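SEVERITY: medium
COMPONENT: batch folding queue
REPORTER: lab tech (J.R.)

DESCRIPTION
The queue accepted two submissions in a row. Attaching both inputs and their returned structure tokens so the on-call engineer can compare them side by side.

ATTACHMENT 1
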Amino acid sequence: MERERGLDMGRYGQLMTDEGLPDGPDRDEMIQLIRDAFPDAVVATIDSAAFFSLDDKHWPNFATVVWTDEHDEGKPSNLERPGVYRVNVGVDRESFERLVGSLEDPDYAAFDGFVPHPVYSTQRWIAIVNPSHETVRETLMPLITEGYDRLAARQHSGSSSTITDP
């Protein structure tokens, strides 16, 4: 008896997992890139996110990597898709306006494009779902550095204002 050709569940599942993801770092590689760039940062990891901060006493973050929408209203980034994650970064006013300030109806689930954070945009946090290698290199890592420097300057000045944790 000849075996029928076609997609079996294993092959179908594998195709669905990889289909459509941009050519960029996976979640663990993204977390490691941030760790490598900021070796002194404290990283707190829970089941659904990694939070990057300057030290263990101050928890305004400068960046987060999340792989669930559980803390967002609804499921704006559709992070339940296999292999999908979102990077969130706190930026200054100029960067926020330049990158996402004119977006009227952002697609929070689209890959490799900056959007206002679905919850913390009023604190000038931006988000990107599954960035490409080029976006990570050219734009995202400099923005994370900006977020780090912004938080460090705020802590150094002794400012009592906080940056909300996304």
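ATTACHMENT 2
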Amino acid sequence: MKQWRRVRSYWHLWRRNHYYKRSRWFWTNSYKRVGRHQYRYIVFRRWTGARWVRVRGYWRLYRRNAYNHRYHGRQQWRWGRFRRIGIHRYRLRTLYRNYQGHWRRVRSYWHLWKRGHYYRKPRWSWGAYRRVGHHLYRQRVLRRWTGARWVVVRRYWKLYRRYHYLHGKYRWFWGKFKRIGVHLYRRRILRRFWHGRWRHVRSYWHLYRRNHYYKPNRVFYGRTRRVGRHLYRLRILKRWNGKRWIVIRRWWHLYRRNYYRHPHHGRTRWTWGRYRRIGHHLYRLRTLYRNHNGRWRRVRAYWHLWRRNHYVPRPRWFWGRYRRIGRHLYRLRILKVYKGKRWIVRRQYWHLYRRNHYPAMKPKPSKPCRCCSSVKNFVIRLFRYKKKCARARHFCSRMGRRGKYRNVCRHMMHLCSRAQRVRRRRSAQLRRLRMLRRRRR
């Protein structure tokens, strides 16, 4: 039977720097307030192989203006006291500004509250009564307002009621009230007018309101109380003794079931927060909230990797300068790579940017004779396309000298000027021929 026998052994390097950890910064749970800002203690630690050892630490600004009051910087106008200026009424208007929860006065002015408030028109008013014979007169007074009081202008006695005072007239009068049992009685008095005054004839107690002092037992509501998730309300049974309500008994009544339980109670949801850069990556704050009777409370949060290598630009192609090769236009194409602070060229080449961009160069023909057939054909074409030269001039004047078609316009204007010169010569020759023919005839 074959067996394996040990020959030798040695320690092989399996993984380099496996137990090494780089020194790093750690946040602590120690906070500190300096002025209106919040600071947090941060510690720099190094790894010894078994544990993290503190090297140094300092207080770092964690949240700026964290302790700023929520109403800081707000403004509000307030109304103040009243004041009279002339016949108008003014009211003090004051502007306040909030400084860390305290309202400070900024400025104030007198605002026109009611125009003509202290002006009153002259008016008639009633005065005292007076008897003249059997009739009743009443004084009529006209007063005007001085700004502080009413001053009488004039007055007179006006007939107010004719035959008001008649001797021997009877009348019923109401007197005081009285309680008899649970009913309300009132004294009824018959009087007769006799020699200027009313004299008593007879009186009796009249039933004014039945069961006025009787009130049935009544249940009153008291304060509320929470028992579990339900709302209870105190119910009190009282009876009326004629003067006040006396408590018979009281108990807690279930007023509203599940009053303190919100429909979203117990639900949880994740929400996105702000962004943060860690190294070359982009992180976003992810927070878990839980609903407690309609209010969302924060449970925990962490930084979620939003986009990897967000702050490392990718290799990019750039355009460079131009170059002419033959009749074509080429442009330099450059591939660059971002290395820390600047772009480094990786490779470049000449890219065909526009084919046949430059016109072909033709040799200039020699000047032909005036009577050759080619010039005659050219003159015939110019007569035929006389209107097109006008259109060409209009087109070139609109495009300008530095337009896209400057070379084409230059060539067209040269042809049109040449055609005009030839046209003039040809028309002169034709005139001469006509004159010779006339003379021969």
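NOTES FROM REPORTER
DSSP finds three helices and 21 strands in the chain.
No errors were logged for either attachment.
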